Amino acid sequence: MNANEIELNGKRYREVDFSGEKRMILVVDNRGLTFVGHVDLTKTDEFLPIRDARCVIRWGTSGHLAEIADGPKRNTKLGHTRDVIVRRDSIIAGYYCGEGWK
User: Fold this and answer.
1) How many alpha carbons lie under 13 Å from residue 5 in its C-beta half-sphere?
2) What own/partner pairs with CB < 8 Å and gap ≥ 24 does 32-38 have?
3) Are 78 and 57 in contact (CB under 8 A)?
């Protein structure tokens, strides 16, 4: 067993490396869903996990989605926090988030 592994109930688990993650808003094609959460764009897998994702139900902006990149507005409505996996090729836009998304 490696130093970054633990064994629990006979199963081995590896440490998860979150160092490459950035908080981002991602717009997913097909259904037009918009998520904000932690993603690691350095990985090249077909599917992209979004950790602690919240679906943006209502942007709450007066114009463009980029207005909420620094944090939700008064009228922004968000879904519950969940981990989500999306196909990498379905992402049509992404914005790095500012400190307002804590």
Assistant:
1) 7
2) 34/59, 34/65, 35/84, 35/86, 36/78, 36/97, 36/101, 37/84
3) yes
| Residue type, position 90, single letter | S
pLDDT > 80? residue 47:
yes
Residue 28 neighbours by CB distance under 10 Å: 20
pLDDT tier at 18 (50, 70, 90 boundaries)? low
CB half-sphere exposure, 41, CA atoms < 13 A? 12
**What confidence tens digit (pLDDT) does each residue in 76-85 have?**
999 999 999 9
Q: Give the pLDDT score at 99.
A: 81
- Res 31: pLDDT: 75
- Show the domains of the chain with their CATH numbers: 18-96 (2.30.30.100)
Give me the amino acid identity at 28. V
Pairing of strands 91-96, 47-58: unpaired
